[in-house]
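step: validate -> pass
step: tokenize input -> pass
step: predict -> running
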Amino acid sequence: MPFTTLLLLAFGMGAASALAGAHELRLTPRHALFSSTFAAFAAFLLLLVLPVSIYFYVFHGDWFLLYLVDVRRIPSALALFGFVFEAAFGVLGFAIGASCVRNQRSSWVAYLLLAVGVLALAVVFIAPERLLVVGNYKQYRGGFGLVKYGGALLKGGLLMGGILVLGATFLVLRIRQGLAR
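step: predict -> pass
step: emit ->
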């Protein structure tokens, strides 16, 4: 999964978590970031989304960044900033979702989730030539030594994507079930 997709996934799951925890968010006077719904989302973000992003950055970095920059030239502090930004973007998604839910605008969250889903998939249509080949930055820029998408990247993508789907499903169900008690 490219960085843009994971970034939008973090944002969308933040909004989806707020929607799943709507009952708690409407009833509690506490700030949304102090709710148990946010705690569950933060655990999802820190234990699943960020490690998956780090995996792709470390093992398939140039592809992960769509060959826009050479991963070997990115200072580690800048990479860390990118992961912190991803987490903050997820928190922003939760905050926007919580605000909509508290203002009785749950349908807005559904529209937001639809838009985020479309944007996350748009990368496939915007940059298919970058996603369908695997190599490093120099190979992509020089047009040599690239292989078709598959192998370790495909296996890693399927495994990490499956983990994220299971984790996201568990998160939403757990939030809904926890609020029913």
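step: describe -> The chain has one domain: 3-180.
step: cleanup -> pass
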